[in-house]
Write a structure and sequence with these properties.
By secondary structure, the protein is mainly β. Helices cover 0% and strands 46% of the residues.
């Protein structure tokens, strides 16, 4: 059986599009005769000739077909349609169609083309690649044109003229991540650098491609490219043992306070869609996100006794894009009971979801990634471990989404704030500055957390000299979703290290429901000489800045009003955490993030927040006092 697509053209007395198209071919026969001339994208095609579709990267590719008269007598087109093979099957690829473009249609035949070609036929053959999956049909499409034409000698009748449209089986699909970037942390004193990765789509590509050029769309002294791949650098096909992404960097160093924009142009040897454009902007256009779960209990598999899969979907709500990084499950014990896979949901009815096997992945507004978590309970009667699904993202701030994974018998899960696992102060050693800091104990599990003890010590469990407990410790219990505070005091005058920095530890003893033993959870306590430099000042604004906040609706806590004093506040130098929340709330906030962070209160009542920022001055990091904010959150309307 012939694998071809046949288009048949027939003629009627209908005027075609204006504009003469000169025919080609020698007219050496006797008398006058019609002669058919077929061009595809302005290139002449011989009878039974082939033309190739270039690569189509999730977009329609069209080839313009022109049928003109190269003879000295009117050419009658009797029909244009797909050819028919053995058994009457049309020789047509399922992704290829005729687009008549409004000048004619399938019912316009027979049709006469004048010798001056004022009404030559023009239409398109369109290839629409499948969405969200590799090309799975490489059948040729054969276009059959029937007419009264003679050959170029005027001796033989050419009543059937065929053009074969073939599909490329080896497809390279260049991608770049992030697909756009907004520089929001650069200052006049310090630039911001972002890494970009050029890669071959792991889900759809089957062939390598070459990078031919990487350059800025507009020459600039504020945007600078570095480490760009050399012309001719090959990005192999996914799955090739030597495959690797190609990396380059862009640095934005503003010269004034006026917002700037530009774009990176990445040229490859791939055809349609092979040139990538990455918009660059400055200021803040964040890509916010929302989470949705497939199960009312989210990822709480407590009392589930058989294998079960549940899903959490991350959707980019805009207005800017975001980048999602590879998921991870912690701690190690939980990886024995939980497995995560990621999927891009199908974009059309009947299509299949696409598994994500390469990271990071860019998410434009409205796009989503679904994470399937499979829970496999132990078969030997032992209990399973609680864990956390951690998904890092950039929007363009860096952050992480933490989804608790609970299973087996109800168990507690301890977490401490600040999220840096370090309480840091900077000040004057000679002045003997003193003060108090707060460590927050959260219970992210679904069973009561028993905290049995707390002590401060130096390395090797030696006595601490700078830090001490703020009050005598009394054992306490933290209910699921709850929090408790432990205060620690410091005296910088007690620093003994020659470099002016001393690190000690707060050890919190708790009962681990999984191991059925007491365990210690450590958080570092750092004190350092500020070398006479002023600390930054953290700010969360005033309660009036958050007027109208209600339960169930997310809002941004804004740390942008913080000031650096000495040094520069860098990206992700903002440490946010909850210190109070109403009874019944299981809302969480314990993040190291950018100048704002999203928080969603779950019940009405009073919430307390703290923010610490740090600034870098050379090799010295200066820490602010915590900024406090108390909000009375209203009930959902």
């Amino acid at each position: 059986m012939r694998h071809a697509l046949l288009l048949v053209v027939a003629a009627v007395g209908l005027a075609g599009p204006a504009g003469p198209i000169m025919g080609c071919g020698d007219k050496l026969g006797q008398g006058t005769f019609p002669q058919i001339v077929v061009e595809v994208d302005s290139q002449s095609v011989q009878n039974d000739g082939a033309t190739f579709f270039g690569q189509a990267l999730q977009q329609v590719v069209a080839k313009t077909v022109t049928v003109s008269n190269g003879g000295t007598r009117a050419l009658r087109i009797d029909g244009i349609d797909w050819d028919v093979g053995e058994g009457g099957a049309r020789l047509k690829n399922q992704y290829v169609e005729i687009d008549w473009r409004g000048s004619i249609d399938a019912g316009s035949f027979p049709y006469e083309v004048a010798t001056d070609n004022r009404n030559a036929l023009s239409f398109a053959i369109e290839y629409t690649p499948p969405l969200g999956k590799p090309l799975d049909d490489f059948t040729e499409s054969v276009l059959l044109i029937r007419s009264n034409a003679l050959d170029d000698l005027g001796r033989e009748r050419v009543t059937e003229f065929r053009v074969r449209f073939t599909m490329r089986q080896d497809v390279a699909i260049p991608r770049v991540t992030p697909s756009s970037y907004n520089f929001q942390n650069a200052t006049l004193a310090k630039g911001e650098t972002q890494e970009f990765f050029i890669y071959n789509d792991a889900d759809l590509a089957t062939a390598p491609f070459s990078i031919t050029n990487v350059y800025l769309e507009t020459p600039s002294n504020e945007f600078t490219l570095s480490d760009t791949p050399a012309s001719g650098t090959i990005v192999l096909a996914p799955g090739d043992p030597g495959y690797r992404d190609e990396e380059f960097k862009v640095t934005y160093q503003p010269k004034d306070d006026i917002p700037d924009s530009n774009a990176i142009i990445i040229q490859t040897d791939v055809g349609a869609g092979g040139t990538l454009r990455v918009p660059l902007s400055t200021g803040t256009t964040r890509g916010e996100f929302s989470l949705s779960y497939s199960h009312v209990d989210e990822m709480d598999f407590t009392n589930v006794t058989s294998k079960e899969t549940r899903s959490v979907q991350i959707t980019c709500d805009g207005p800017g894009p975001m980048t999602i990084k590879a998921p991870a499950i912690t701690p190690d014990e939980a990886r024995q009971d939980f497995k995560v896979t990621a999927w891009i949901p199908a974009s059309s009815a009947g299509a299949s979801d696409t598994e994500v096997t390469s990271w990071p992945r860019g998410l434009n507004v409205g796009r989503a990634i679904r994470f399937d978590v499979e829970y496999s309970p132990a078969t030997d009667g032992t209990d399973t471990a609680n864990g956390t699904l951690i998904i890092e993202y950039e929007n363009p701030d860096s952050g992480e989404i933490r989804v608790p994974l609970l299973s087996g018998d109800p168990k507690s899960k301890i977490a401490l704030a600040p999220a840096t696992d370090l309480v840091s102060v900077t000040g004057s050693v000679t002045a003997g500055e003193t003060g108090t800091r707060t460590v927050v104990v959260y219970n992210d599990g679904n069973g009561p957390l028993q905290v049995k003890g707390a002590r401060v010590h130096a390395d090797f469990d030696l006595p601490a000299v700078v830090w001490s407990l703020g009050a005598s410790f009394a054992p306490f219990t933290v209910e699921p979703g709850g929090l408790e505070l432990i205060e620690v005091d410091y005296d910088l005058g007690q620093i003994t290290e020659n470099d002016g920095r001393q690190v000690e530890y707060l050890a919190i003893t708790y009962f681990d429901d999984f191991t059925q033993q007491d365990q210690d959870k450590l958080i570092g306590l750092s004190a350092e000489e500020s070398q006479g430099k002023a600390n930054p000042v953290a700010s969360l604004g005033a309660p009036g800045d958050y007027a109208g906040a209600v339960a169930g609706a997310g809002f941004d806590l804004i740390g942008a009003g913080s000031t650096a004093a000495a040094g520069v506040i860098e990206s992700n130098a903002y440490i946010y955490y909850l210190v109070d929340k109403p009874a019944g709330s299981v809302a969480r906030l314990n993040a190291q993030a950018g100048a704002s962070v999203r928080f969603t209160p779950d019940v009405a009542g009073r919430y307390g927040f703290e923010l610490v920022v740090y600034a870098r001055d050379g090799n010295l990091y200066l820490y602010s006092e915590p900024a406090s904010l108390t909000l009375d959150i209203g009930a959902a309307p």
